[in-house]
Amino acid sequence: MARKRFAIELGYAADLHGEDMTKAAVRAVRDAVSRICLCGIVEICGRDRFQGVYVHAELAVPDPEKVDREAVLAAIPIGETSLNVCTGGISVPGIEVPCFGAGVSNIVAACAALTISIETDMGGTGNQ
Description:
Blueprint (H helix, E strand, L loop, with lengths): L1 E14 L5 H14 L4 H5 L9 E9 L7 H6 L5 E8 L2 E4 L12 E15 L8
Parallel strand pairs: 2-3
Antiparallel strand pairs: 1-5, 2-5, 4-5
């Protein structure tokens, strides 16, 4: 079986207080998920319960080492998942609000790209 791309969706999000890379990353993935409807996988490709569906997330945040990969993958509701995290996004000065975390003032933003692929036969019809 070969995999073919079915859809790509982008998401963007931020953590305004806390400089939490994981929070921004999960929000970016959820943003992408919230805008994509995969009815074609079921209706056109004849799938049941999204079997043979793969979702790869490319994620960019200012400090990739601080991302909880399992939390990000848990935000993807279907399919077999994979994740690549790289340096990107943005960190800009915000304001320090002590009740949200003393000494924390930067706003961090994350970018996510979800690629949804499906298993196909080599004939390329997508039906199994």
